[in-house]
Design a protein that fits this description.
Strand order of the largest sheet: 2-3-4-1-5
Structural class: alpha/beta
CATH class of the largest domain: Alpha Beta
Number of strands: 7
Number of helices: 11
Helix content: 40-55%
CATH topology of the largest domain: Rossmann fold
CATH superfamily of the largest domain: P-loop containing nucleotide triphosphate hydrolases
Length: 272
């Protein structure tokens, strides 16, 4: 007669075996994912195999994530904990919009995100956080400044690799374009830039940060009809974060740091 203790032990062993099989399958090692290999193995040995596999899988996942970040052009992972804000930080942002951006629900919906505001208000930090979360969730990501994209397009044209470059930029699930109004493309390059945005429209997510007014930037280009289309493809159903009139975060952090330093240097009412 099987006791309750033996029954529980068998259930635990079966659960461990199931996890072991899943991990070997995920690692594309089907020969070791054969249930028959683990029949009759003592629980303590199964537990050791499970722990070793779990540790290796976690390490492999870290390496994959680092490789995907490097390929995306991101040097360091940023998480939501590093983004300090409250309801008063962005007076012009619609209620709930920052939370929506942080959930990256707009990425799943294949919509764009446009963040505008002066330097230091958190545009780049938020863009990196979103990019890292998208990578964690399995999306392909590329992070570039607009200036670098323009330079790449010009070099690709002279190197006869323009078509391939445009197709790669069109294919990423999430394309982050930093400082779009700092780029100054010529007429031919602006057409190539438009081609990237055009093919991504309604198919992929584009994240834009800008210090200036995109409409004013576009007004400097000769082909007005093309740039009207450019605006429409960027803005239609996009999530918009107007971060103007926000406090300069970097300046605030610097002031807080020096304030803390000054307080630490106060001894017996004397400042040194």
């Amino acid at each position: 007669m099987v006791t309750l203790k033996q029954e529980n032990a068998m259930e635990d062993a079966a659960a461990l075996t199931e996890n072991i099989l899943k991990m070997f399958n995920s690692a594309k090692m089907p020969r070791l994912a054969d249930r028959n290999l683990y029949l009759g193995i003592p629980y303590s040995i199964l537990f050791g195999i499970h722990e070793a596999l779990s540790s290796q899988c976690a390490e492999d996942e870290k390496k994959r994530f680092r490789n995907r970040m490097s390929y995306a052009g991101i040097l360091k992972e940023r998480t939501e904990n590093t983004f300090k804000w409250d309801d008063n930080t962005y007076p012009l942002v619609a209620p709930g919009a920052v939370e929506q951006a942080l959930t990256i629900s707009f990425v799943h919906q294949k919509k764009n995100l446009i963040m505008s505001g002066p330097p230091g208000v958190g545009k780049t930090l938020l863009a990196v956080i979103i990019a890292c979360k998208a990578i964690r969730e399995g999306f392909s990501v590329k992070y570039k400044t607009a200036h670098d994209i323009v330079t790449d397009l010009q070099e690709a044209r002279f190197g006869n690799s323009l078509s391939g470059y445009i197709k790669r930029m069109q294919a990423y699930d999430v394309l982050v374009i930093e400082d779009i109004t700092f780029a100054t493309p010529d007429s031919r390059t602006s057409q190539d830039f438009f081609s990237i945005i055009d093919k991504r429209y309604d198919r992929k997510t584009t994240v834009i940060t800008t210090n200036g007014n995109i409409k004013e930037w576009i007004s400097g280009f000769s082909d007005k009809s093309m740039w009207a289309g450019f605006l429409g493809r960027l803005y239609q159903e996009a999530l918009l974060l107007n971060m103007n009139e926000a406090e300069d975060m970097r300046l605030k952090w610097a002031n807080d740091f020096f304030d803390d330093t000054d307080r630490n240097n106060m001894t017996d009412g004397k400042e040194y």
